[in-house]
Specification:
The protein is α+β, with helices and mostly antiparallel strands and 484 residues long. It is built from 16 helices and 19 strands. It folds into three domains: 231 residues, no CATH class; 146 residues, Lipocalin (Beta Barrel), CATH 2.40.128; 73 residues, no CATH class. The chain is globular, with a radius of gyration of 25 Å. Keywords: Signal.
Length: 484
């Protein structure tokens, strides 16, 4: 198509009116701060796009959409986690007043975004010249850290959408704090004025400890490949080439089966009752986490019995006695118990965990007109499975399943695995994005695999809870061709 259709005119953009500004006002401040920081760091990419006759127009068009929503004017404020420093220091027994230990902690935080927590813990203990952890100690400490890290971000929204996907360009802000991955995805559905396209802007994020302020803060730095445009012809190519055999770096073999070969089974209808119940459970989790975090530091005057509550810890002299952290409001424990009981009753209504939680936006993708596909996996060790549900829309794949066999779960004590399979229905989700490598022109499929944290006793190994979805990087590539 010619440039007339490729470029939406400025008049068209202006006529979209004030609605985008109203939507922008509702963006959570931490997401808007990350987005504006990323946008302002992309000057060189936008300048290069102006001279790229093949793909540059999509990047510049996406830039116009972002400016339409005012991203370039969004305030950039520091994202801080005031209580995380003391909590992590206590858990990992780190003295943050010592520069070498503070530096070791920051290096540890960087490593967990690139690999797994247990491996990062090993390296942390080596750097601090500590005795190595036993396997059980490592698993327990890893689980405790993962929960602490997840809880620190639990009250923050991880995604936000601007725009209507059917009638105008959309902007999706997506953040995975644990992986340190922030994305701004601009999608144009196409019209008589412009070809369909999408542009993905990516940044790396990770909390780091600021020794001067004694707190953790988060910022965004452009990723190694910060801008990835996908054109209409790319989407057609992906639609042709995504199916077939793939494999992972671990040697697991994947087969993505096209809709034509996937059978006649229909996508399950969205259950409004189920969706609202799942949304309520998510809201309850956020309320409970917020209340659990609403603690202050309490001091008591031993002479007058006067009580002082501090938002930030300040040491008081005698006759003041520090009583520890308490809830800000007296009835907080009662309210937490009430919310936990409501959550328990909802969870017991035979709703599987794989549908109670939706970290990959499965239902959103399904609502956008996704097509049913099949995904089969044979792991290097021989374990095989298929996803219970898998869908594709454009370049996005989402799938989910419940883990039902021993070989699906590793790196946990056998007695814990037995309990999970017998009573907990542990879920798994995947989100994959197919993109064309601009350097080599090859199709690549990258994304995340999600599971849930498991809490169990250190002595009796009794599973106490399964909670808080977490993700690990998942990359697929074509297996080597066999010699003729």
């Amino acid at each position: 198509m010619g440039m007339q259709k490729r470029l939406r005119t400025w008049v068209t953009i202006v006529l979209l009116g004030a609605a985008p500004q109203l939507q922008a006002a509702a963006v959570p401040s931490h997401l808007s701060s990350l987005a504006s920081g990323l946008y302002r760091s992309l000057d060189s990419e936008f300048k290069q796009a102006a001279s790229d006759k093949e793909r540059g127009w999509a990047i510049l068009q996406a830039q116009q959409v972002l400016r339409q929503y005012g991203v370039h004017r969004w305030a950039q404020s520091e994202i801080t986690l005031p209580e995380l420093a003391d909590s992590i220091a206590a858990l990992l027994k780190i003295d943050l007043s010592k520069p070498n230990e503070a530096e070791a902690l920051n290096h540890f935080l960087l490593q967990i975004s690139e690999g797994d927590t247990e491996e990062a813990l090993d390296k942390l203990y080596i750097s601090l010249e500590r005795a190595p952890l036993s396997d059980d100690e490592q698993r327990q400490l890893s689980e405790q850290f993962n929960k602490l890290h997840s809880d620190s971000f639990s009250t923050m929204e991880k995604s936000h959408r601007l725009g209507d996907s059917e009638t105008e360009p959309t902007v999706d802000l997506m953040w995975e704090p644990f992986d340190g991955d922030f994305q701004v995805l601009v999608k144009e559905p196409g019209s008589e004025y412009v070809e369909p396209y999408q542009a993905r802007f990516r940044a790396d994020t990770m909390p780091h400890y600021d020794t001067d302020k004694n707190l953790f803060s988060v910022d965004a730095q452009p990723a190694a490949q910060p801008v990835i445009p996908t054109l209409a012809e790319d989407l057609e190519y992906i639609d042709r080439e995504i199916y077939g055999d793939w494999q992972t770096g671990e040697g697991h073999r994947w087969k993505i089966v096209s809709p034509d070969a996937a059978g006649e089974k229909d996508l399950p209808e969205l259950d409004d009752t189920l969706s609202s119940r799942a949304a309520r459970i998510t809201a309850l989790d956020e309320e409970i986490a917020t209340l659990q975090a609403s603690k202050v530091y309490q001091w008591r005057n031993l002479e007058t019995d006067e009580i002082v509550k501090q938002e930030k810890f300040r040491r008081l002299k005698e006759p003041w006695f520090y009583e520890g952290q308490v809830y800000r409001e007296e009835n907080t424990e009662t309210e937490i118990a009430r919310l936990e009981e409501e959550r328990r009753l909802l969870a017991e209504q035979e709703v599987p965990l794989v549908q109670q939680h939706d970290p990959v936006g499965f239902d959103n993708v399904q609502q956008e007109g996704a097509t049913n596909i099949d995904i089969h996996v044979i792991e290097a060790g021989g374990c095989s499975y298929s996803y219970d549900q898998a869908v594709i829309t454009g370049s996005s794949i989402r799938a989910r399943r419940t883990l039902v066999q021993q070989c699906y779960i590793i790196n946990l004590p056998q007695t814990v695995i037995d309990q999970l399979l017998a009573s907990w229905s542990p879920p798994e989700w995947i989100e994959l994005e197919a993109e064309i490598d601009l350097a080599g022109g090859e199709l690549r499929v990258e994304g995340k695999k999600w599971r849930m944290h498991v809490t169990y006793g250190s002595m009796d190994y009794k599973v106490g809870n399964i909670h808080t979805p977490y993700s690990r990087t998942l990359s697929l590539f074509r297996p080597p061709r066999k010699a003729p």
